[in-house]
C-alpha cells in the first residue's frame, strides 16, 4: 500500500494519535507520584495502578457502544477530553483520595477512543489493505512512544506532576485536531417513525471472536510481562534497570523499521492463522533469548526478534477482527477484542513478579517463551477452523452463528 493509497482520514488519525502518544509518558510514573508525594506504601501504589487497569476494561466496551450511539468523532473527542481532565486532576491533586479518584476516572476514559479509531480504519481502508493500515497505526504509536520516553526523562527531573499536565495538553490538542479534521458523524439509520434502526450485533456469541480474544489476551499478557519484568531482569543480571529504556526504544524502532515486512509477497500470501503462528514463533524466539542472554548486545538482539513478531501479530489480529464483524459493527468487535489489554494490565504485575521471585530469571523467560509457542499452536488448531478457509483478512465476515454466511445487515442468511 503506497502513500497515495492511504485515505486522508487515516493519515490524519495516525498523525494525531502519534502526537498524543508523544505525550503519553505519565502513566509509568503514577506509582512513583503516589509513593513520593503522598507517602503511600508500594502495595497501595500498586493497588491504585491495578484499579486504573481494571477501569480500562469497561472503558474499551463503552468506546465501542458510544461509537455506535454517538458517532466515532464524538466518542474520540469525549475520550481524549476525559483523559485530559483526569490528568489535570492528578497533577493538581492535594490528597491520596483525590489521586485515586482521578486515576480511576483516567482508566474509565483511557480506552474510549480506541474502538472508533480502529473502526475508522476498518471502514475506510479496503479489506486487502487493512493489515498494512493497522501496521501504520502501530508504527506511529511506537514512534511517538520513543519520543515520549525522552520527554519524560527531561520533565521528570523537575516535578512528576508536570508529566501529567503536559500529557493532558497533548490529549486536548489531539481532541481538537481530530474534531476539526475527521468527517462529521452521520445520522444513524432510522426506521419508520424516525426511531433508530438497531441492527442485531452480538460479538460475544461469535466463537471466532472468542478465539481471537483468548489468544489476544495471551499476547497482551506476554507484552505486559515484558514491560513489568524486563527492568527487574536487567537488575538481577547486574545491569542498570534503567537500561530497559534502551531495550524499549529498540523495540519501538524495530516496529517502525519493520513495517515493509508486512508488504512482503510471501507474508501477504499466508492466511491469517499461519501468519499469526509465525509471529508468535518469533515472539517465543526473542523471549527465549532473554532466558540465556548474558550481555547487553544479546538483550538487544532478543528484543529486535520478538518485536518483529509483534509487528506481524498486531496488524494481522486487528485486521482479522475487523473482517469478522458485520458491516457497521467493527467498533464493537474491536472493543471486545481490545479489553484483553485491560485484563493483561491488571494481571501482568502479579504474574511477572511472582514468576520472577519464585522461579528466577531463566525460568520466567523460558516459561513465557513456551507460552508464546502454545499461542502459535492455538492459531493453527483453534483459530484457523473457526475463522474459515479464507483465514481472515480477506474482507469477509461471519455471522454470530459460526459457519453461517451473513447478509449485509449482519443477519444469518437461510441456507439453500
Brief synopsis:
73% of the residues lie in helices and 0% in strands. With 416 residues, the chain is mainly α. The two termini are 38 Å apart.
Structural class call reads mainly alpha
Domain module tally: 2
Overall pLDDT score = 80
The name of the CATH architecture of the largest domain is Up-down Bundle
Overall geometry: globular
Strand content: under 5%
Low-confidence residue ranges: 190-197, 393-416
DSSP strand count: 0
How many helices does DSSP assign?
15
Share of helix, binned: over 70%
CATH superfamily of the largest domain: MFS general substrate transporter like domains
CATH fold label of the largest domain: Growth Hormone, Chain: A
Describe this structure in words.
The radius of gyration is 21 Å and the shape is globular. It has helices spanning 8-22, 30-38, 42-69, 72-92, 96-110, 114-124, 130-155, 160-181, 207-236, 244-257, 265-268, 272-292, 296-324, 330-359, 361-387. It folds into two domains: 1-184, Up-down Bundle (Growth Hormone, Chain: A), CATH 1.20.1250.20; 202-400, Up-down Bundle (Growth Hormone, Chain: A). Residues 190-197 and 393-416 have low confidence and may be disordered. With 416 residues, it is an all-alpha fold. It is a multi-pass membrane protein.
Amino acid at each position: 500500500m503506497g502513500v497515495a493509497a492511504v485515505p486522508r482520514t487515516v493519515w490524519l488519525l495516525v498523525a494525531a494519535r502519534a502526537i498524543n502518544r508523544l505525550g503519553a509518558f505519565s502513566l509509568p510514573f503514577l506509582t512513583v507520584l503516589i509513593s513520593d508525594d503522598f507517602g503511600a506504601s508500594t502495595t497501595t501504589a500498586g493497588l491504585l495502578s491495578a484499579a486504573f487497569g481494571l477501569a480500562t476494561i469497561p472503558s474499551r466496551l463503552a468506546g465501542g457502544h458510544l461509537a455506535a450511539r454517538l458517532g466515532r468523532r464524538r466518542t474520540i473527542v469525549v475520550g481524549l477530553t476525559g483523559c485530559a481532565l483526569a490528568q489535570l486532576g492528578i497533577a493538581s491533586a492535594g490528597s491520596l483520595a483525590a489521586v485515586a479518584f482521578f486515576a480511576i476516572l483516567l482508566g474509565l476514559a483511557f480506552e474510549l477512543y480506541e474502538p472508533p479509531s480502529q473502526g475508522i480504519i476498518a471502514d475506510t481502508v479496503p479489506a486487502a489493505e487493512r493489515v498494512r493500515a493497522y501496521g501504520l497505526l502501530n508504527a506511529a504509536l511506537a514512534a511517538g512512544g520513543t519520543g515520549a520516553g525522552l520527554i519524560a526523562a527531561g520533565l521528570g527531573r523537575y516535578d512528576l506532576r508536570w508529566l501529567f499536565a503536559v500529557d493532558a495538553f497533548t490529549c486536548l490538542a489531539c481532541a481538537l485536531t481530530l474534531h476539526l479534521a475527521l468527517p462529521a458523524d452521520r445520522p444513524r439509520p432510522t426506521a419508520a417513525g424516525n426511531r433508530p434502526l438497531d441492527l442485531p450485533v452480538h460479538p460475544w456469541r461469535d466463537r471466532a471472536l472468542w478465539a481471537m480474544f483468548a489468544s489476544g489476551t495471551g499476547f497482551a499478557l506476554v507484552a505486559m510481562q515484558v514491560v513489568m519484568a524486563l527492568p527487574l531482569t536487567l537488575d538481577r543480571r547486574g545491569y542498570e534497570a534503567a537500561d530497559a529504556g534502551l531495550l524499549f526504544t529498540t523495540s519501538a524502532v524495530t516496529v517502525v523499521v519493520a513495517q515493509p515486512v508486512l508488504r512482503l509477497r510471501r507474508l501477504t500470501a499466508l492466511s491469517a492463522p499461519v501468519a499469526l503462528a509465525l509471529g508468535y514463533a518469533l515472539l517465543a524466539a526473542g523471549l527465549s533469548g532473554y532466558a540465556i542472554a548474558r550481555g547487553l548486545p544479546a538483550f538487544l538482539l532478543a528484543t529486535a526478534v520478538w518485536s518483529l513478531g509483534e509487528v506481524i501479530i498486531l496488524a494481522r489480529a486487528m485486521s482479522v477482527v475487523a473482517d469478522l464483524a458485520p458491516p457497521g459493527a467493527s467498533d464493537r468487535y474491536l472493543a471486545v477484542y481490545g479489553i484483553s489489554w485491560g485484563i493483561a494490565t491488571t494481571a501482568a504485575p502479579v504474574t511477572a513478579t511472582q514468576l520472577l521471585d519464585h522461579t528466577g530469571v531463566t525460568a520466567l523467560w523460558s516459561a513465557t517463551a513456551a507460552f508464546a509457542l502454545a499461542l502459535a499452536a492455538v492459531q493453527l488448531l483453534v483459530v484457523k477452523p473457526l475463522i474459515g478457509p479464507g483465514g481472515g483478512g480477506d474482507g469477509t465476515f461471519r455471522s454470530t452463528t459460526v459457519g453461517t454466511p451473513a447478509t449485509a445487515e449482519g443477519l444469518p442468511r437461510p441456507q439453500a
